[in-house]
Amino acid sequence: MNGIVLIVSILLCLLVLEAAFRLLGYGTVGKRDDNIVRHIATGDFDHSATLNSLGLRDEEILVKQPEEFRILFIGDSFTYGLGVRDTETFVHQTGDLLV
Hints:
Elements: H1 2-23, E1 28-33, E2 36-41, E3 47-50, H2 77-80, H3 90-98
Antiparallel strand pairs: 1-2, 2-3
């Protein structure tokens, strides 16, 4: 019972904190125009990102050829590269190193 109360309390605190940040104007807002999304934030993170038809930050994903290999990156805003150009994300740079 105490564990459930603790978990609910933590989740409630996180929701209140999230609401406070949004009300104060922190965070990003994306405005999508076709396959370009413009992230508007306070500070240095104003930039545009190119999205594919799946809504992922990447070029269009073509049918995989038998001699190709692919690596899947799963993550948060660091993996997405929030605040940097498309070519500056570590996902893109890793791809360049492997080519």
